Amino acid sequence: MSGFDGAGFAGNLAWSAGAVLVVLGATYVASRIAGKHSVIDTAWGLLFVAVAVVSFVRAPDGVSDVRRYLLLALPGLWGLRLAIHIGRRSIGKPEDPRYEKLLAKARGNPELYALRTVYLLQGVLAFVVASPVLVGAFERAPVGPIAIVGAVLWAVGVFFEAVGDSQLEAFRRDPANKGRIMDVGLWRYTRHPNYFGDACVWWGIFLVAADAWPGVLTVFAPVLMTLLLTKGSGVRILEGHMQGRPGWDEYVARTSAFVPRPPR
User: Fold this and answer.
1) Which residue of 8, 55, 77, 165 could cross-link 137, Cys pair, CB 3.0 to 4.6 Å?
2) Longest Cα pair distance anywhere in the chain, in angstroms?
3) pLDDT tens digits for 32-44?
């Protein structure tokens, strides 16, 4: 059977948006208990888990079960791993300087400003990026080769993201590396293996949805995620923070900024 359950999709938008708001509300409460708004970084992956779970539950009989399960598992596993990783990394840490700088611009009530610029904004971005999940869960066409390629690309992305994060943690734990630039393992081939992996994950999820109509129309979602990673709060801000460190310029000169390749 081919086609798209447009009515089911439309109804699911409200349910998924509600799930995102519930996660954001719980995150805001947790941030006030912890005394730092950077708790939202841990919740970022959970926003996608919420959308994936609700879309899976709301999908009716007649849709592609294989695609439905893929669009539950791929964003779900990715989001849970990311939340656990960031949550562990942030335990005992103070407020992230990014949020201190952002909230220093607040005019009027600082809590309302935080709700708008930190929580609501990230909720909207997550909802837009999750469009392939929202659409793909209601596609009736059977899974084809493009979706399989997408699942493989997702696996490549999770490898780069998880292994890159693990290698960086191990590097930082070694006192001998204090003040040094991480340039071994996957970090030898790209300055941001975790961000590259993140982009692969969402291009892979898009391909699972784009295997059938109208999933191809959600191409804006992985494009947006890639722009956020390379031009938004990812590469640009991190590299600005690294400027001036000993060995950084040499590392930049020989190592790809994003897509892995042999060092120069």
Assistant:
1) 55
2) 60
3) 999 999 999 999 9
CA geometry: angle at 259 spanning 243 and 187, to 5°? 55
Question: Is residue 260 domain-resident?
Answer: no
Residue range of the domain that includes 97: 6-254
Give the rounded distance of the alpha carbon of 130 from its chain centre.
10
Q: Is 139 helix (H, G, I), strand (E, B) or coil?
A: strand
Q: Are 64 and 143 spatial neighbours (Cβ–Cβ below 8 Å)? A: yes
How many domains are there within the chain? 1
Closest CA to 89 of 214, 194, 219: 194
**Structure token pair of residue 16:** 């998924």
By C-alpha distance, which of 35, 122, 46 is closest to 87?
A: 46
pLDDT-derived band at 1 (thresholds 50, 70, 90) equals very low
Tokens representing 120 are 């609501």
Residue 2: what pLDDT? 57
Under DSSP, the state recorded for 62 is T
Considering the entire predicted model, what is its pTM? 0.94
Domain membership flag for residue 177: yes
139 pairs with which residues across the strands?
4
Percentage of the chain modeled with pLDDT above 90:
79
Q: Across the strands, what pairs with 58?
A: none
Residue 264 counted as domain residue: no
Contact 200, 164 (CB under 8 A): no
What is the rounded CA–CA span in Å between residue 56 and residue 50?
Answer: 10
Side-chain-side CA neighbours of 180 within 13 Å: the count stands at 13
Half-sphere exposure of 128 (CA within 13 A, CB side): 15
